[in-house]
């Protein structure tokens, strides 16, 4: 087997393994959110990052909203997720800037 064929096979295996890991990792969070969207009345997806100063300034407002609106379920996406999951969810919901709030209301 030539070196070029061996390199192509190894590259293909690495790509498949990365794609498999991406699908596996993104599935858990996505399923949780999709289940919540089916069951809950009012949901807010809050996209943030730990390095984002505007996100940090929104923290007190977010906590106040959580206290004032018991019926509103807030899911924070960003701070506690790995890069693969964040990238998947940011792309799925069209998030291009931070912070982003998306309200789902039945």
Notes on the protein architecture:
The protein has helices at residues 3-39, 53-68, 83-92; strands at residues 42-47, 72-77, 100-105. The protein is an alpha+beta fold. It has a 3-stranded mixed beta sheet. Helix 2 (53-68) links the parallel strand 1 (42-47) and strand 2. It is elongated.
Write the layout of secondary structure elements.
Blueprint: H1 3-39, E1 42-47, H2 53-68, E2 72-77, H3 83-92, E3 100-105
Parallel strand pairs: 1-2
Antiparallel strand pairs: 1-3
Helix pairs in contact: 1-3
Short description:
With 106 residues, the chain is of the alpha+beta class. 59% of the residues lie in helices and 17% in strands.
Keywords:
single chain; 106 residues; alpha+beta; three-stranded mixed sheet; 59% helix; elongated
**Amount of helix:** 55-70%
What's the total helix number?
Answer: 3
Physical arrangement of strands within the biggest beta sheet: 2-1-3
The beta-strand count equals 3
User: From N to C, what is the helix and strand string?
Assistant: HEHEHE
Overall mean pLDDT = 77
Gyration radius, in Å:
18 Å
Kindly, what is the distance between the CA atoms of the first and last residues, rounded to a whole number of angstroms? 59 Å
Shape call: elongated
| Structural class by sheet pairing and helices | alpha+beta
The amount of beta strand, in percent, is 15-25%
Low-confidence stretches: 15-26
Largest sheet: 3 strands, mixed
